[in-house]
């Protein structure tokens, strides 16, 4: 059969798709992450991929993102029908570019149907008109949790976040990682305490945020360019050098408070940070998994308190693999009351594809089948089908081979697919109600009575 | 805090979203369906929501669907950048409207990376510019399986499909259902056997397809309008009246073959149908769950052999809740070789919302939390956190209450959220390392030592 035309079937640039073995890995990760989210009582929701454009753009939320608007394409030879007038109407719609703006809209839509504090997770696809380059996708899955309170929200919710991050990355076994915790009030308060003007604070936070990458000389130059005095520059540089255990850092921060006057915000930042750290400890998170990092600020403007980043030790170039923070205003602006929230996000598609490239994660086999029943002779097919069903009934993923090629070819195919076990039944075995069970990894082949097959398969799969 | 403006936050019309309890039900259904798919060795894939427009429109595949094209919307105050030139370029993209066309494209893209027969499942969202009316959505989840062969594909794959459908609907417990099986060659062959012209066959298949709804008188009129002779009309009416057990129907069909001359296609349709039915029986599907229904044809033009519909007994108005069939040409046209396939689709979003309305399915509780640890006094919080973590560590979904309201209010809240168990620890209990465990359903409250709590909770959750 010749191809009917020269259609280009490739994926649109920046829209990734996985082979079955990669998709199976992704589903494994999704299941693991979801399990941890649910352990802490987060409930799932899913907002539509499509929102009204005015919602996505409300309060300047579009930020720097290019978003995808929708325009209906009618089928050839079809006029706009009365029924579908809505499709050519004036309601502008677009694809969501994150989960946070839709969360705020969701809460506004269902305020009286939800219980607060509202703890939800979401693992949907989001869409951004990013430049399609290595590791940047235009469609990707984002795994988010947020807790949103009505009126107020305990700082202990902030403390749960590092416990959740730790449990997720321990459960998917990706090696050593470090959760870096900070509080934006500490940064803002510190800059106030050394008498910076309001307008200098955000640029200076950005400079500190970049300190690790750009080095001290460049930090100094940038601060001077922002108009800081020599004394202020020295104080900032000292601040960026604060290191040590969580307790060391808290002691050094408290010393700054003692030596300065205008420290109300700094002080409340330190109190928040200490409360969160104590909670993290009470939750039993291992001390080597978290730290205070005063240079963490997160780019997003809406964070107001606690902020988090997570670094994979030895793979710092990946950037933060899980980030977030507390925001006091974002949801409230949509609803019209005070609704503080705290949450984190894992950019799963990007994380997974980078961890595969770095050799930290491996694709799964391309099929979930654990057993293949070989087709030895066509007249035994009813028995093969019966044997397959009996395995499935006890929870074993099984395929029956309908191939008419020789046994060798069929075993080769099972091996290529990574199917661990093959069941072989010829006429002699059928008569004796037994089979040969071949382990494709070890090559070992044993004889098993058919009524013992499920038990033996389960044993070998363990 | 006042709302900053009058943004309309509602969902765009036809784009549904679920409350947490409904979403939890959907995830339960997804998990159940996926489990059955994997039992039969189907591997997951996910194609992008977005395809190149020419792929979606190739071979006239758009059909009657209105599809959504994408157009980038730049952020305010931003010009087109060189980097994002692609976003204003000429590559037209649109949202997928089904899973079958993307499956064909996926196979064309990965032909040499896949093993054949390629058995895959997909549970993604698809998008259609439907008129937004009751039960019709513009975004909905479709759960599809297909097996695609290279060159040929055993009819036993067709036989597995009813076994899979039966297992799914039995596992989600939605009451009695009937899988109706037919073969388009039987229909085409029958019409040839009574000497209809080629051009009359498709219209007549459509008339038979509608027979149940429109009744005999209208069928007769329609057939006359198609130009059939009185004798032909009588033969068609007799055909539509063929009823009975699977074996009865096969015997009656064979009688038609014996009494006619031009029956090559009819005969091969009957042989296929019989092979599939025998396979379904060998797979142990209960006889009352499937039938041959000669009026089933499926609207889609690409089906060439076996076709399936599934009816929920007592809820026939829902229409078919799971349908599909065999197609010989669809994938092959994309790839340029012979690639027959067979598959089915469950329109999950629509099915679920209609089953909820019909009272067949119920929403879950709005939280996965199984236990709430009550906040009796703030100074015991470290203990509450520790107790919560110990429950989570053995797989129990737990929330710690951070509320500062009285115990009664907190218990009320747990009850409202459908949390089955509450753990109550005051200073006395703390001292004695025990707690009160309250069952919210029965109201019963017992005293449990903290080191026995996990065991007791698991017992009560059973």
From TrEMBL, chains A, B:
Keywords: Aminoacyl-tRNA synthetase, ATP-binding, Cytoplasm, Ligase, Nucleotide-binding, Protein biosynthesis. Belongs to the class-II aminoacyl-tRNA synthetase family. It is found in: Cytoplasm. Its main location: cytoplasm. GO terms for cellular component: cytoplasm. L-histidine binds at residues 98-100, 128, 142, 146, 298, 302-303. Its EC number is 6.1.1.21. The keyword Aminoacyl-tRNA synthetase applies. SUPFAM superfamilies: Class II aaRS ABD-related, Class II aaRS and biotin synthetases. Pfam families: HGTP_anticodon, tRNA-synt_His. The gene is hisS. GO terms for molecular function: ATP binding; histidine-tRNA ligase activity. Homodimer. This is Histidine--tRNA ligase. It catalyses: tRNA(His) + L-histidine + ATP = L-histidyl-tRNA(His) + AMP + diphosphate + H(+). It is an enzyme of class 6 (ligase). The keyword Cell membrane does not apply. It comes from Limnofasciculus baicalensis BBK-W-15. Residues 33-366 form the Aminoacyl-transfer RNA synthetases class-II family profile domain.
